[in-house]
Predict the 3D structure of the following.
Amino acid sequence: MAVTEPIGGPGRASRARGDRAVFIDKDGTLIDDVPYNVDPRFVRLALGAGTALALLKAAGFRFVVVSNQPGIAYGRFGASALGAVEDRILELLAPYGVAIEAFYYCPHARVERCGCRKPSPGLIAAAAADRGIDVARSWLIGDILDDVEAGRRAGCRAALIANGNETEWFLSELRMPTIVADSLPQAARAIVTARRTAAEPPGSRRHAGALVGSR
């Protein structure tokens, strides 16, 4: 039977307390991007990912992965194959005292025009509804502007990791990130600083810890 809804569930970690979360892209943001990989042997955390998430956890954020997985639609792998990848990610994060609360995937190809494939906000909306997350107090972190747009459309602030994975740079109001950072640790520090100071307006953007514009 064809999958017609976002794939997501309760996750392997117990549901955390609090309603503030970071929705994080998987490939190219949380882990190194290996196209269509479902072999846990090739799963590697992005540089500094463990310490970055530990910093965000200490600031009260929960973690939910939101990821487009068109390899399912293309027949490269089945949805169940992602379980081994999830297990490996959790294993790699465990030494940092961090766990991903849930993984939500879009299994569709772009041509299917679903409501869950980023830049649509469906994955974030589903996760927020399932898990009692306040999107207005939450962030999306990703490595391309489709991630940013999904977060903005869902009502989150958004951090873009400018690691070279965005190649088109088609900009619009909804594709303007709140923060632009060179790495996940840099983004985490900026998010924590923003929360501590409570000084940034909802539409401001930040680069290397400094505000650089507004919506």
User: Anything to note?
Assistant: Residues 7-214 form a domain with the Rossmann fold fold (CATH 3.40.50.1000). The chain has one domain: 7-214.
